[in-house]
Amino acid sequence: MAKREKRITIYDLAKSLNIAPSSVSKALNNSHAISSKIKKMVEDKAKELNYIHNTNAANLRRGFTRIIGVIVPKINESFFANIIAGIEKVCVQYQYSLIICQTEESLEKEVNAVKTLIRQNVDCILISLSLETQTTAHLEEIKNNHIHFIQFDRVSPAVDSYTVVNDNAAASYQAVKHLAEQGYQKIAYFGGPAHLNLYQERKKGYKNALKDLGLTFNEAFVKDEIISTENGRQEALSLLQADVKPDAFLCTSDYVSLGVLEALKTLNLTSPKDIGIIGFANEMFTQLIQPSLSSVNQFSYEMGEQIAKLYFDEVMKNKENDKVKSVKVKTEIVERSSSSR
């Protein structure tokens, strides 16, 4: 294995030019204390020796790194990928970089990601919690290390922080209303882990909508911990073969909606004729399959922009006060074939 060559430093430049390292540093930072002639000498020598300025070291001397850490459950879901893209768009405008960590829905990986970002001395940590997360000690550790901290989408109310979320109760309310307007009356609810706040809010909106619309609430139609396509398929098969069957499903994930659709095919049922389906997140595949899947558009890209803007406009400028801010991002029902009779 070839030996790795030593990286060129300002001390190497200074030795080559026979000037003080401090003069090289000032020249590289375009200091008014250094003449144009010296700056040109340093610039030329830097190019000759392939010197790359260590901005991280310079930023550390100033007390910040211009790096933001982002922790998400899954990078390969378009919802989170779009959030990251929105965050990056704003960060680029401020000349900030991102370190992106994926937990794969594991609390252990989430804790390790937080530790890694703290060690990297990032300026801020942006996090959406894993499905396993029920403890908050690692989140408090972020604050203990005086690192700015914003939660988004899946958040813990137990931790005092800025948050960027959808109005999840209103979103599921509108989803149920849409299904009812299409003539569905026996609507099942497939939610996620009950300990997470957003699923509590979505179930609340579901129940409120049933009540306001005069539809019957059936406890047997409500299932928590449905987090995958396979979970959705199995639970839908069970409900659709029961004596009392639902005629529609509100799923808090588009991937779970896929499972419901698979169950319909197994039972020779069709959507939307026999069963209505609506999911959450408006993943890319929802418009590509047959029937196309209705979904709640959570405007994930815009959410990412709002997260970053919250940091640069308020958090970074020390506008924090006793009342932390929660930003609500709009939602919209995207009506497609699976719920349109």
Automatic annotation (TrEMBL):
Keyword Ribonucleoprotein carried by entry: no
Domain of life: Bacteria
Pfam families noted in UniProt: LacI (PF00356), Peripla_BP_3 (PF13377)
Coiled-coil region(s): none
Keyword Transcription: yes
Gene Ontology MF terms in the entry: DNA-binding transcription factor activity; transcription cis-regulatory region binding
InterPro entries attached to this UniProt entry: HTH_LacI, LacI/GalR-like_sensor, Lambda_DNA-bd_dom_sf, Peripla_BP_I
Residue stretches making up the HTH lacI-type domain: 8-62
Record keywords, A-Z: DNA-binding, Transcription, Transcription regulation
Protein name: Substrate-binding domain-containing protein
